[in-house]
Amino acid sequence: MLDHVTPGESIEPGQDQVAIVVALLLVGNGVSATELSSKVLALSSALQEPAAADALLTRVAELGLVRIARHAGEGRFFLTSLGQQHAQATLAGQPELVGGLAALEELRTDLLSTVAHELRTPLTAVRTSVGLLLDPTVEPNGALREQLLQSISQSAERMQRFITEILDLTRFRMGGVQLQLRRFNAGELAREVVDSVVQLLQSRRQPVELDLPPRPVWVYGDHRRLEHALTNLVSNAHKFSPEGSTISISVATAGADVTWTVTDRGVGIRPEDRPRLFERFYSSPTDAAGRHQGTGLGLPLALAVAQTHGGTIDVQSVEGQGSTFTLRVPAAGPPEEEEL
């Protein structure tokens, strides 16, 4: 039996396991905090006071287990499908799901925040450009019209790229990515990546040192996916390196593996960021210029590509001195069972 909770006092995290399950089971087709407290008299003294019941149900609503409909100052709480599943799982002997739900809610909040942040800027650019093109009081000349159309095109591409990355990462996590395997030169892939990002690097006067072996290094893999992964690593180095600093890219063999290594002279990785480095939607608070950074999808996607090939990404970093990311995959291709 849980300890008594006085009116207005919230239930402590370590106490609420039984109370949460009791509340979920009694919500039914809808209940107010007052009704719940009257129902639970014989089951849990922690919920006998309406204020305590309201505090618990509000906390449970934050986890997505119930939803709140407020009318005339009092809330009615309705069980969600997630809440029903949680109650059933808990009764089946899985009470540890409460902590997991908190992590899930944090991830969902991060996702919504990231989506809003990443789509707001290009959508604003599209609306502004379209507004000027449709405004009868504005007569854009040929050059301005071309500039507005270019802005719309670039913003649409940015939104499309963001959505594609989310869908790709979901497919990787669900094992639904079908690799298109072929034999190609790892050095040529690195050269193609440099060519594709040269304007981005020039925007901050960041020279590239490309170190390729004298002979071709052959690898059996998905060229497009690996190119995307390496591009993400170079883009990450660009964002977290100061203006004018050099970014180095090298290709080598390491036993049975082929490696692409990207080294920057940037801000490095803080110790507190290391455990979350490849976590979805997580990014370091600021880049080398002190700006908020990115979607938090580039590194997780790069790692997913490497792992799908049977490889990994190695990281070395010294805070304040720079970082080295090494994309490593088997030269002979992914294990046979992963050749989809």
Structure characteristics:
46% helix, 9 helices, disordered N terminus, three-stranded antiparallel sheet, single chain, five-stranded mixed sheet, Arc Repressor Mutant, subunit A, Heat Shock Protein 90, 3 domains, 340 residues, extended, Helix Hairpins, alpha+beta
Termini separation comes to 54 Å
Helix content: 40-55%
Query: What is the SS-derived class?
Result: alpha+beta
> How many distinct beta strands?
10
Largest sheet: 5 strands, mixed
Describe this structure in words.
By secondary structure, the protein is of the alpha+beta class. The chain has three domains: about 15-95, Arc Repressor Mutant, subunit A; about 105-175, Signal transduction histidine kinase, dimerisation/phosphotransfer (DHp) domain (Helix Hairpins), CATH 1.10.287.130; about 180-340, Histidine kinase-like ATPase, C-terminal domain (Heat Shock Protein 90), CATH 3.30.565.10. The protein has nine helices and ten strands. A hairpin with a 2-residue loop joins strand 2 (about 65-70) and strand 3 (about 75-80). It is extended.
